[in-house]
Structures are given as structure tokens and as C-alpha cells.
Amino acid sequence: IAAYLKRMKRWERHHPVLNTLIVLVAVVLLWSGVWGVVDLYLFPGNPLLSNVVSILLGFTILLLDDFELDEI
């Protein structure tokens, strides 16, 4: 595993733009998947309630994790 991590770090240093694009695609895919699951299971018949609860859950998670809400 150590050799693999060493190769990955070297690859990241040599191809920073490609690495950034790969990470960007991964983040967008993760966000899209979470969004789809929330749409399916969190009050699927009531989009307004689903959105309000999602916002409240997001703020609650940020508060519990001690993020600074003034940065948002």
C-alpha cells in the first residue's frame, strides 16, 4: 500500500490539473447520488417539506460539527 500511495502522490504532483478534474467529477457524482437518494426517501410526495427539512438538517449538521455559519 505504501508504494501505491507514493505513486499516487507523484502522479498528483505531475498532473495537478487532471487530478483536480478527477476530484471535481468525484465530488459532483457524490453530490448527485446523495441528492437523488434524498429526493427518493425524504418526503417524496412533498417537495417543499423535503427541501425545508434538508436545509434544517444541513444547518444542524454544520452546528453540531462546529462549523462557522458566518462563512456561509
What does this entry show, briefly?
This protein has 72 residues and is mainly α.
- Helix count equals 3
Give the radius of gyration.
18 Å
Instruction: Please give the alpha-carbon distance between the first and last residues.
Output: 38 Å
Structural class: mainly alpha
Query: What is the H/E order?
Result: HHH
Question: What share of the residues does DSSP label as strand, in percent?
Answer: under 5%
Largest sheet: none
What is the tally of beta strands?
0
Low-confidence stretches: none
Note the overall shape.
elongated
Assign a percent range to the helix content: over 70%
- Determine the mean pLDDT: 88
Describe this protein's structure.
The protein is an all-alpha fold. It is 79% helix and 0% strand. It contains three helices and no strands. The N and C termini lie far apart (38 Å).
